Amino acid sequence: MTVIDFLNFHIVPGIVIGSIYALGAVGITLIFGILRYAHLAHGDLATLGAFLALALVQLLGVPPLVVLPFVIVLTAGIAVGIDRVFYDAFRERPKIITVMSSLGIALMIRAVVQVVWGVNTQTYTRGLVRPDDYFGLRLRDREIYTVAAMIGLVVALQLFLNRSKWGKAMRAMSDNPNLALLSGIDNRKVVMLTWIISGGLCAAAGVFLGLNTELKPMMGWSMLLPMFAAAILGGVGRVEGAVLGGLIVGIAEELSVLVLPSEYKAAMAFAILLVMLLVRPTGLLRGKVL
Amino acid sequence: MSVLLNMQDLVGGYGEADILQGVSMVVHEKEIVVIVGPNGAGKSTAMKAVFGLLTIRGGSIRFDGDDITGWAPNRIVQRGICYVPQVENIFREMSIHENLEMGAFLRKGDLSAGFDRIYTLFPDLKERRRTLAGNLSGGQRQMVAMGRALMLDPKLLLLDEPTAGLSPKYMEQIFQISRDVRDTGVAILLVEQHAKQALAFADRAYVLASGSNRHEGTGAELLANREVAEMFLGG
Amino acid sequence: MELALGLANYALFMGVFIGIYAILALGLNIQWGYSGLFNAGIAGFFAVGAYTSAILTSPHAAGRIGGFELPTLVGWVGAMAVAGLVAWPIGKVCLRFRSDYLAIASIGIAEIIRLVIKSEDVLTNGAKGINNIPRPFGDLPYVQSQIAYLAIVIVVLAVVYVAVERQYNAPWGRMMRAVRDNEVAATAMGKDIAFRRLQAFIFGAALMGLGGALFAHFSRSITPEAIDPMVATFLVWIMLILGGSGNNRGAILGAAVVWIIWSVSEIATDRLPHEYAVQAKYIRVFLIGLMLQLVLRYRPEGLLPEPLGGARNAPAATAKATPRNGH
Fold it and tell me: pLDDT tens, C235-294?
């Protein structure tokens, strides 16, 4: 295999799927870090985002990228709503109760998708897209958009977290919740912001997964494990870690076909997760261990 | 000097059990008051009571003309009391400057006067303001913790065992900083394990035992008191 | 007469399933109810048990290993052993951390098990599954055979119940519950507690494997599509939470109540025209998810509360002492 083939067949698809995992993993790492529980409905929230985009694409007859901002806002709102209606009631209870609740929410969101959109596989656009040739690298437009959007969204998030007052408040809450409360930071607002950001990024992950593959009710659930593996690999609470972790998991999955039957691609994420918990639970960038 | 904080016959604790069984103490303006006592005497609990962190079942706390008994911590912060916990009192993964900024979270408008005040008080911090607080030494962390609390310009600063785990050199430094803070017009109430050194440095002190007052007086008086000496100064 | 026979048969069928699910719920009770371990991969351990017993006891078939034709009892013990063996490394790695990590890893192991079952034809015969699994007293006429199997399930359930219940008041159970309700005590006890949690996780997983084996022998066949992993896992959870986590009789009661609701509502939706029937199935899934939310919020102790009470299940108003973290 030549170097260019290796890049085209393994590294490029790995970076594309890794960028999608990264978008979801950033939300998972923020929720894990700030709200302090594993959000098991994250994959299905991405599915919902992808199907909402499908509805808008069919309704308005425009490409999915045009509706993406609306879907991000819409899903962010739904995430805030789910928190207000369901998770918020468990605020004073042990965190694991919210984890359990989120498993139920995952099932409920998926059921909604299955009722509204059915169980068949769908796509945003019909027909094959031929990749363009960039000095031997074969890239499709949607692949470029995916990676570019991931970078853009993550840079914007980092600016928000590091420059704005409320972004810093989110970091403070993740760092030392008791001191943040003593300093007068409004916990409810931080929780809401966390859901807006995580929900929005989650929708983007869903839409880009739908754009690069197809839409299925199980699409998000099957991303859950890679997204968590990415968040833990990078270090819980670390946004840049989640991106790094997402890319590594994505590339590792695409490389795994060189040694394993392709059915076992999904096992890669699990292996990474277990190995990290075994040898370095704080992750590559020294995150939290709950 | 006028009375700033007046705690009268306070009874209370966490949840059901009463750890404080009638504690009274007074802090005047611009005064350093130390609470000492054996382990389990209720020293830190008495301080947390001021900050609204426990269930009060008797007595009252007045601060600067208001009855603040039973107020929530965020209201007490706004009223002019800031609290530095004994442990986990900094944001480790944020820079020194950001720590101070979070301390002033409730403050609207320009913070530069506040930053200037803190950096004048702690010149060491100014040089390293972009450093992550978690990477600092113990003494410097304590400065950050105090600086964070002082950003709201409180009238009373509560310090819970600020010298715990610090070397004697740093202990002296923290005491010196406390005096500097006091000289800017802030009263300080602090809990100390190192009774001998703390009594030597405090304006006045209270000795608690089993959740109630045992002795009070100026540091020098208490150091001269034989009973106090026997209690925990090792005779 | 025919209707009565149909109903009786349905009741037998339902009884067997309630028994199997009750064993799964008891397994989860050891893990979650006693020890606070979050296992979201119940279906995985169930499947391991089902396939293990199928491979050990079924007659020879071309294209896959097996044909050992061992006695059914050996199959069931094997199912428990292999399910416990699969649980071991997961528990070993994850039980040092908060239960969130176990939840994720158990979702992962269930996913891997699903992949292995679908892909390893030599072991599982792939999508076609394993057939001709012997059923004890399967040679009897249909109804008698159903009754006999129900009796077997009841006996197994009774044995499991006694075994699990004995642990509740044993020093082991007392310690697990103390640790479950107090994370600080858990950290203080360190290594010892990690080992005991591992025991609880393996014991629970073995019971789930046993449930799977009982299912496979009842159905006489097992295929990758036999159960919907998410729904099955979730049903066991709602059974335990609704019945009363920490309470073994509650787990059995919960299994009965939830399974009756679940299967009777299936009869109702199956009568709908086909285009609605599919949607109705998912509405049922939605409602069962909603039911969990409501039980967790308004009746966290379940129908039969834990005998000695657990701080964890106390209603929110009295649980104020838990530290207020980020959420």
Answer: 999 999 999 999 999 999 999 999 999 998 888 888 888 778 888 889 999 999 999 999
**How many Å apart are CA A193 and CA A166, to the nearest integer?**
8
The number of domains in chain C is 1
Query: For residue C124, what are the contacts with CB-CB under 8 A and spacing of at least 6?
Result: C51, C55, C64, C116, C117, C118, C130, C224
Chain A residues near residue C89 by CB distance under 8 angstroms: 274
Contact across the interface for C103 and A40, Cβ inside 8 Å: yes
> For the segment A94-121, what is each residue's pLDDT rounded down to a tens digit?
999 999 999 999 999 999 999 999 989 9
Average pLDDT, chain A: 94
- Report the top-level CATH class of B1-78+155-235: alpha beta
The angle that helices C171-181 and C142-169 make with each other, rounded to 10 degrees, is 70
Q: Look at residue C327 and tell me if it is in a domain.
A: no
Torsion of CA C54, C59, C64, C70, to 10 degrees: 60
Q: Which residues of B touch A179 (CB under 8 A)?
A: 85, 88-91, 102, 148
pLDDT at position C183 = 66
Q: Which domain holds residue A48?
A: 3-123+133-279
A positions 181-210 inside 8 Å of B (CB): 181-185
The pLDDT score that the predictor gives to residue C120 is 87
SS3 string, C188-208, reads HHCHHHHHHHHHHHHHHHHHH
Pairing of strands B20-28, B3-13: antiparallel
- The larger pLDDT score, comparing residue B1 to residue A192, is at A192
Residue B78: which of B173, B155, B191, B168 has the closest Cα? B155
- Residue A206 structure tokens: 């869903």
Identify all chain C residues contacting A99, using CB atoms and an 8 Å cutoff.
Answer: 38, 99-100, 103
What are the residue ranges of CATH 3.40.50.300 in chain B? 1-78+155-235
CATH number at residue C254: 1.10.3470
Q: Is A289 within a domain?
A: no
Give how many domains chain A has, as a whole number. Answer: 1
pLDDT of residue B231: 76
Q: Which amino acid is at A1?
A: M
What whole-number distance in Å separates Cα of residue C29 and Cα of residue C243?
A: 10
**Could you tell me if residue A288 is inside a domain?**
no
Section A175-185 average pLDDT:
91
Could you tell me the residue range of the domain that residue C109 belongs to? 9-318
Query: C289 lies in a domain?
Result: yes
Q: What percent of chain A has pLDDT over 70?
A: 100
The CB density around residue A138, as the number of other CB atoms within 10 Å, is 16
| Complex ipTM tops 0.90 | yes
Greater confidence (A102 vs C174) lies with: A102
| Share above pLDDT 70 across residues of chain C, in percent, rounded to a whole number | 91
